[in-house]
Amino acid sequence: MKFEDFKIMATASSAPDHVVTNDELATMMDTSDEWITQRTGIKRRRIATEETTSSMCTDVATQLTAQSDLTAKDIDLIAVATMSPDYLTPSVSAMVQGNIGADHAIAFDIDAACSGFVYGLHLVKQMLIANQQKNAILIGGETLSKLLDWSDRSTAVLFGDGAGGVLIRNTAVDKGSFISEDLRTLGNLGQYLTAGQTGNPSPFATDQQPFSPFFKMNGRRVYSFAVKNVPESINDALKQANLTADEVDCFVLHQANRRIVERIADELAVSMAKFPINIDEYGNTAAASEPILLDQLVKQKIIKRGDVIALSGFGGGLTVGTMIMKY
């Protein structure tokens, strides 16, 4: 089996109906629309009121099968990238598998934070090869609003909820391919972005650390990490593919901060016209950000069959993942 034998057959996304504006946040904390917009590029975000990570991911999976000639029972593998699952167990992917009736699919979750979707592309490819399977669903889904301290303006203004995903088929057609990838983890920097500390309340623990769900982030260190490591990762993946940045039709980057994306475009010497942005409407949705943006671009026919796409996620871990593909 060749690396090029994998094709994205369909894209889909789902987000809560409830929209929270910067002006609304300004009534809850010491901030303003101007302050948030200038520093992040975010104007609005979707916030779950009754939706869950599993419900949004189930919606995405249902859309994906509806767009194809497949039924849920034709799906061999379901993977969900998330750092905000409904439970530690069952996994979100197992809940999706049960919800859609994909009885023959194996299912697992991936926790690589904002790089999770690209890490998932690599893992799904390897799993399809190892198990000689054909059809997989990969979803990035997050309910980050439940991990926010809504009195902390340094984090509460940044994040939103949503899910996006793709249907991947192991096929020999030549109209689509996974070309190259670059994955990297800088675990020595992981303390600069944390969330969901589980603690240890056991009566036998010598250090009874408390449960602390909220995001904690050193924004300057994460910014420096991103603007250095993401261009390096993209360039390394392009080198493997024997491509230049100018030959990429569209860069689908994790929507963490508009200024970060602008800086990455500058480092690559590529026009921002090739770096679409939706952070203004969705905020940072972690593992969901790239597939939500990808689905929008496909639906709007900005990305077309045959286009060369660079997907890149970066964030908690700290991690970076880049995939070069021909859509």
UniProtKB/TrEMBL annotation:
Entry-linked Pfam families: ACP_syn_III (PF08545), ACP_syn_III_C (PF08541)
Reactions mediated catalytically: malonyl-[ACP] + acetyl-CoA + H(+) = 3-oxobutanoyl-[ACP] + CO2 + CoA
Superkingdom, natural source: Bacteria
Gene Ontology MF, one: 3-oxoacyl-[acyl-carrier-protein] synthase activity
GO biological process: fatty acid biosynthetic process; secondary metabolite biosynthetic process
SUPFAM superfamilies: Thiolase-like
GO cellular component annotations of the record: cytoplasm
EC number: 2.3.1.180
Keyword Lipid biosynthesis among UniProt keywords: yes
Gene3D superfamilies cross-referenced by the UniProt entry: 3.40.47.10
Keywords linked to the UniProt accession: Acyltransferase, Cytoplasm, Fatty acid biosynthesis, Fatty acid metabolism, Lipid biosynthesis, Lipid metabolism, Multifunctional enzyme, Transferase
Location(s), subcellular: Cytoplasm
CDD domains in the cross-refs: KAS_III (cd00830)
Domain Beta-ketoacyl-[acyl-carrier-protein] synthase III C-terminal: 238-327
Domain Beta-ketoacyl-[acyl-carrier-protein] synthase III N-terminal stretches: 108-186
Cited InterPro entries: ACP_syn_III_C, ACP_syn_III_N, FabH, Thiolase-like
Region entry ACP-binding, spans: 255-259
Active site: C114, H254, N284
Pathway: Lipid metabolism; fatty acid biosynthesis
Protein function: Catalyzes the condensation reaction of fatty acid synthesis by the addition to an acyl acceptor of two carbons from malonyl-ACP. Catalyzes the first condensation reaction which initiates fatty acid synthesis and may therefore play a role in governing the total rate of fatty acid production. Possesses both acetoacetyl-ACP synthase and acetyl transacylase activities. Its substrate specificity determines the biosynthesis of branched-chain and/or straight-chain of fatty acids.
Domain observations: The last Arg residue of the ACP-binding site is essential for the weak association between ACP/AcpP and FabH.
Subunit organization: Homodimer.
Name assigned to this protein: Beta-ketoacyl-[acyl-carrier-protein] synthase III
Gene (name only): fabH
